[in-house]
């Protein structure tokens, strides 16, 4: 009888050890999901960034694991074609970004199912473990150990996968933060001065001139038609300009002239020099 009691006690001790490991691993997974939800997007005035981040983190801490996973699958991890644009801009100088991972439909379905299964598994572990397992027999304890080992493997796999994605996100966010701290970007936010030498529109104008005229004179209208096809998001208004000629003039990276062609006045431009327009 004593040996049976000792065997049962040892089996139960192993269950308790595995149960504790499982709870801790699920907490680590949940904390990682909270960090991802808190940090993967931001939309705030420049003066309110830290307050906005703190408020978002506080709200995230109050959410259940099920809610967190659902939000993560709708915002951070998405199916291809469902990527979100940034949030609406504020009237004052502001910043808005969102980091997302997009996957093919089948892969997204697999990832979604695995993370939602973790929610069910965690709830069963925390709320129904004693109901589901007989811890008064050695065989029952062995079955419980097997279930806990399987749960540990499952949450460890998803946790490690998410940890790698979160690490990539934080690396990208760090690069963005470094960019924002550069004098050019700071000057843009504070004084609204466009850093033309790194602006996408400058690159687009240079690319158009190279493609259409080998870097020589090209009609502005011809170039802008090319830009609309290859850089559809680039518009003069985004840079505080009223027209493409205005952009070309303000950037100071191009020569601009008006010529008569077939009796009509037409604006032409060319890169001032390749080093300036590519710098």
Automatic annotation (TrEMBL):
It comes from the Bacteria. Keywords: Exonuclease, Hydrolase, Nuclease. GO terms for molecular function: exonuclease activity. This is Exonuclease.
